[in-house]
């Protein structure tokens, strides 16, 4: 057995520890988006594979027997490539994906299908926005330059930000509700834009928004073809034939 673990999430890192603890032969893969990715207890490669063809070649060269896609729910290109490469090579694929967040009493959420739709959903009058979506799609918000944008980024920006009134805060999750209550209050945030990532690591801002009665524009997940999806590390271990012990 030799597993490819596609990472970049809190859950992927937890799975890496579970595999390492069991002595499972596995390679952890990062896209290389952040400057100092969290060290993993597995052999780690960094960077794209070169599309489907590159991934197919890599799977064969590395004698991979199982693929676990534990990427972020919005990493749709990587997930689609993994699915296609799995079909071509007959290497079985399992997706570890946390359930989407669901609104609770007290939440004021507006669901939108894309980041472009989130831009459209912002009001015309200037307001203070917590843009909790990472850095890749920030330029889309340049069409609404009248707003003040608070950005939470993993790395300090290495180029001028595409927004005229933006303040970056450099921080890496998981975040606590107390921290996010302070962040939203200190910056007098009036609306939050977030991706429906699910999981616990980034949920604090939604709990803080509920408490402070701040509306949230929530971007829906990209839709992918039908895949074998599980929600827990225990299920991944069972799929790999390494059932969980107490405490995973
Ligand atoms: P994406 O758009 O789906 O992927 C674009 C390309 O990046 C892929 O085609 C692949 O390049 C490479 N790539 C992505 N994930 C990879 C991985 N784990 N290992 C090796 N190559 C990978 O992905 P993304 O949205 O930019 O996300 C990049 C990474 O950040 C992922 O690992 C994801 O889990 C993590 N992340 C994403 C978000 C988000 O909101 N999108 C949030 C938090 C963390 P090739 O085609 O060359 O193979």
Q: What is the number of helices?
A: 7
Number of strands: 12
How many whole angstroms does the radius of gyration measure?
19 Å
- Provide the residue-averaged pLDDT: 95
Tell me the β content.
15-25%
What structural class is derived from the secondary structure elements? alpha/beta
Q: Based on the structure given, which CATH architecture of the largest domain is correct?
A: 3-Layer(aba) Sandwich
Please describe what this structure looks like.
The structure is a single chain. This protein is α/β, with parallel strands linked by helices. It has 2 domains: 3-99 and 223-239, NAD(P)-binding Rossmann-like Domain (Rossmann fold, 3-Layer(aba) Sandwich); 109-219, Rossmann fold (3-Layer(aba) Sandwich), CATH 3.40.50.720. It has 7 helices and 12 strands. The chain has helices at 10-21, 51-61, 76-89, 115-121, 177-186, 204-212, 233-239, and strands spanning 3-6, 26-30, 44-46, 66-69, 93-96, 109-112, 128-132, 148-153, 166-170, 191-195, 216-219, 229-230. The strands form 2 sheets. The protein has a 6-stranded parallel beta sheet with strand order 3-2-1-4-5-12, with helices on both faces. Strands 6-11-10-7-8-9 form a 6-stranded parallel beta sheet. The longest helix has 14 residues, at 76-89. The two termini are 20 Å apart. The chain binds NADP nicotinamide-adenine-dinucleotide phosphate (NAP). NADP nicotinamide-adenine-dinucleotide phosphate is lined by residues 6-9, 29-31, 33, 48-51, 54-55, 71-72, 74-78, 81, 134, 195. NADP nicotinamide-adenine-dinucleotide phosphate binds next to strand 2, helix 2 and helix 3.
């Amino acid at each position: 057995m030799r597993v490819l673990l596609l990472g970049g999430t809190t859950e992927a890192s937890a799975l890496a520890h579970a595999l390492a603890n069991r002595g499972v032969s596995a390679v952890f893969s990062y896209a290389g988006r952040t400057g100092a990715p969290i060290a993993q207890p597995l052999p780690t490669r960094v960077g794209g594979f070169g599309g489907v063809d590159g991934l197919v070649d890599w799977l064969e060269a590395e004698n991979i027997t199982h693929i676990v896609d534990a990427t972020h729910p919005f990493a749709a290109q990587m997930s689609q490539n993994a699915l296609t490469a799995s079909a071509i090579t007959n290497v079985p694929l399992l997706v570890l994906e946390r359930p989407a967040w669901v609104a609770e009493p007290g939440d004021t959420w507006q669901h939108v299908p894309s980041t472009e739709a989130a831009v459209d959903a912002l009001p015309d009058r200037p307001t203070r926005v917590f843009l909790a979506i990472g850095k890749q799609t920030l330029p889309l918000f340049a069409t609404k330059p009248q707003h003040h944008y608070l950005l939470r980024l993993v790395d300090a920006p290495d180029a001028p930000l595409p927004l005229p009134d933006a303040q970056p805060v450099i921080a890496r999750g998981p975040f606590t509700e107390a921290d996010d209550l302070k962040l939203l209050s200190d910056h007098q945030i009036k609306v939050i834009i977030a991706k429906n990532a699910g999981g616990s690591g980034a949920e604090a801002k939604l709990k803080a928004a509920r408490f402070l009665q701040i509306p949230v524009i929530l971007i829906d997940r990209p839709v992918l073809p039908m895949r074998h999806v599980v929600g827990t590390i225990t299920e991944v271990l069972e799929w790999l034939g390494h059932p969980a012990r107490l405490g995973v």
